[in-house]
Amino acid sequence: MFSVFGIKSRPLIAWLLVLAAGRCLFAGREFLAGPREQIVAGQLLVGLQPGADINQILSALVPQATASFINRERNTYLLNLPPGIQAAASQVLAAHPLVNYVEPNRIRNTTVVPPNDAMLTQQWALTTIQAVQAWSYFPDHYLTASTAGANRVKVAILDTGADCTHPDFMNAGGASTDSAQGGQLDWTDSLALTATTISSPACPWEDDDGHGTHTAGILAAATDNAAGVASLGFPLQLVVIKTSNAAGTATDAVVAQGIYAAIGAGAQVVSMSLGGAGYSQTMQEAMDSAWQHNVLVVAAAGNSGDTTLIYPGAGNYVLGVAATDDTNARAKFSTYGNWIKIAAPGVNILSTLPTYGSQYGTSYGTLQGTSMSTPHVAALGGLLFAANPGISVAAVAQRIQQTAQSPNTGWNEYIGYGVIDAGAALAGIPGPFTQGSLTGQVIEPNGNPVTGAVVTAGDQSYTTAVDPNTGGINGLFRINLNPGTYAIAVSAPGYTTVNMQGVVVAGADTMLTVQMGVPYGEFTGVVTYNGVGVAGAVVEAVSGGLIRGAAVTNASGSYTLSVQPGTYTLTASAPNYINTASASQSLSANGTVTVSLALSALGDLAGTVTDLNGVGVANAHIDFSNGSFSGGAVTGAGGSYSTFGLPAGTYTVTASAPGYSSVSATGVSVTANTSTPVNLRFSTGVPVVSACDITLGSTTSVADVQKMIDEALGLAQAANDLNGDGVVNVLDVQIVIDAVMNLGCSAS
Who contacts 622 (Cβ-Cβ below 8 Å, separation ≥6)? Predict the structure, then answer.
């Protein structure tokens, strides 16, 4: 939406005179461009107080400007200005009492480093991140066009677009990349916020650079389709949002719009392989909104090879991803510092490229950069959402970090908590960490960051400061601590000290926002299962459908959650448990309300898969589905298996293994707090197709096989110890059944 105003200059001059006399007491924050930041000339981003009218403000102050919405909920706008007045307009707008902030529209670049090696013949990264182990938790091993439904978890990828007809976004047996027709790309929700320059494009978001197709292939290329490459996130579907142009650049305004579009499309993960120097309040608010909507944001750390803060990867409520090589060491180009949350392979990564050619090559090629690392982490986030229905975004971030591969016992500035391990993340196997961190942002009442704030926890403190490279203010902090419950005090000049409690868990960040100058109250309580405290559960305060605050339980299941006064529903969640919610709770300023929450465990399946002789079959694949939820498991050396938590329902459970005919159990009931035993036995007897028309029904059918089984069961009553194990049991009966099955028609 655009609002155009007539050209008048006197209000601007009048307000400049006001500024000369003294800044308004309730003025907003003006974020100035730093020396290493790229900005769009003649544009500003403005955030207003709730209910403020941009038209009235501009007509009074800067009538030369035109405005368009970034986000209605946040009341943020992109302003276009005539040449020569950007600096003055920024200053006068920031002085208005209804303006929260004004900042330049910074430019973010795709974060790719041109490869310096020949094209790789295999995807080493998938081995490093244990992709095969992760895939065992999903049914049918790989998707085909007939099994890839449109109800899969959505991951939005904000980049230069994608080659929407690339054959490696088509699953086996299909001829379309559209997820509604069995492909990998969500054509319904994908869109272009930056127009493609491709002539007669197959879709509006056709990739005109090549970078987006490469990152999309890393994230969710079709796998086992006899074409090209595999991907960690093949069970997912991609919402392609074209935010970057043919030169690989995007502005903060467009990126923020892309994040809001991803939220609106129902994506549970946002992947951004882009970045640039300079803090953006507009983008931070968009990422805050994603977290409040239970959406995980993943972004590249940058390729400067130094400590330059690269946004959005350095922001709050985002997993900033560093790049590693095939030895799990930090890539020399990977940016490092306090904001690094996790790492993933980013050197010489093989993936898809546009089939019509690009600056990087045609169809397939290798690139390197934190751009390539980011989609690996985004894919893992998507898989965790898929495997754990209802899981909180905080729990997903925590699981990714706690299960990473690291030579360290805690966080470091080069690789965060280490290189992702998808197999361990899906299995819930944490690394040997002994330290965690408190991370977050200190903001003032209008939501802008505070510099000079002192955050203290235990015997450590951190002072928020300006970015030494750009001079920008960001309010970010990190304190590394041993696991435990800490009293947190946050002080800043001009504000009353904020006191709260926080829990630090081993191997992960506890992320929070501390707002100065506003009152807080506290929810406290215990999260239990069967009367025993649940450690590491996430408790969230939800109001208006948004997550307003979150806390993690300590070793005994206790939590303290500080939020502003209001009415909330408290929810508790943890992997393999059923989410629980409280009744509506009112919290007053400086008040304390105790709310304890009892979790129910998801049901699961467990059992053994054996051959016809009763011997356990290792590495058999277990698939289970109830029509709306599906998953998988793999048997161990003795043929035993167990699944992760499953929603209640009636399932079909199938076992398959090379050399055996698949066997299924139907009507399997799964209920909360219960492990349902399902034992499955393979038979290598004559297949159904070799049975004869024993029942004289003119066709060979399952009835003929059933007749053979019935006759075998009659003979089995006289079964002896045929297998010589010293007892007459079901194994001897099975030998008789198998023998009769092998007789075929003679059984009649």
Answer: 605, 609, 632, 633, 634, 635, 641, 643, 653, 654, 655, 680
CB-based contacts of 87, cutoff 8 Å, min separation 6: none
Contact 66, 82 (CB under 8 A): no
Residue corresponding to tokens 């955050």:
455
Task: With beta carbons less than 8 A apart as the criterion, state whether 600 and 673 touch.
Answer: yes
* Residue 95, phi then psi, degrees to nearest 5: -85, -10
Q: Measure the CA–CA gap between 643 and 658, rounded to whole angstroms.
A: 21
How far apart, in Å, are the Cα atoms of 589 and each of 184, 520, 540, 561? 49, 5, 18, 13
Instruction: Supply the DSSP symbol for 248.
Output: S
Residue 599 structure tokens: 């979790």
Terminal-to-terminal C-alpha distance of the chain: 79
User: CB atoms < 10 A from the CB of 488, how many?
Assistant: 21
State the CB neighbour count (10 A cutoff) for residue 293: 18
Classify strands 649-656 and 663-670 as parallel, antiparallel or unpaired.
antiparallel
Residue 379 CA to residue 144 CA, distance in Å, equals 19
Question: Given CA atoms 469, 513, 270, 341 in this order, what sign does their dihedral have?
Answer: positive
pLDDT in tens, 596-627: 999 988 888 989 999 988 889 988 888 888 87
Q: Are residues 287 and 317 in contact, defined by beta-carbon separation less than 8 angstroms?
A: yes
Using DSSP's 3-state secondary structure scheme, residue 719 falls into coil
Cα dihedral sign, 371-376-380-382: positive
Count CA atoms closer than 13 A to 488's CA, side-chain side: 29
Beta strands in 373-508 (DSSP E): 436-443, 454-457, 460-463, 476-481, 484-491, 498-504
Q: Are 67 and 56 in contact (CB under 8 A)?
A: no
The domains of the chain, with CATH numbers, are: 2-106 (3.30.70.80), 124-427 (3.40.50.200), 434-483+490-501+509-516 (2.60.40), 519-599 (2.60.40.10), 604-681 (2.60.40.1120), 688-747 (no CATH)
CA max distance for the chain: 108
Left if phi > 0, otherwise alpha if psi is -120 to 50, otherwise beta: which for 159? Answer: beta
* Of 67, 447, 425, residue with least CA distance to 283: 447
699 or 1, which is more confident? 699
For residues 176 and 121, what is the distance between their CA atoms, to the nearest angstrom?
Answer: 27
Report the alpha-carbon distance of residue 705 to residue 410 in Å, rounded. Answer: 60
pLDDT in tens, 154-208: 999 999 999 999 999 998 888 899 999 999 999 999 999 999 999 999 999 999 9
Q: Distance between CA atoms of 62 and 11, rounded to whole angstroms? A: 7
Q: Could you tell me the two tokens for 608?
A: 């053994």
d(CA 102, CA 243) in angstroms, rounded, equals: 22
Catalytic positions, written as ranges: 159, 211, 371
* 232, 383 Cβ separation under 8 angstroms: yes
pTM value is: 0.81
Q: Supply 181's token pair.
A: 């027709």
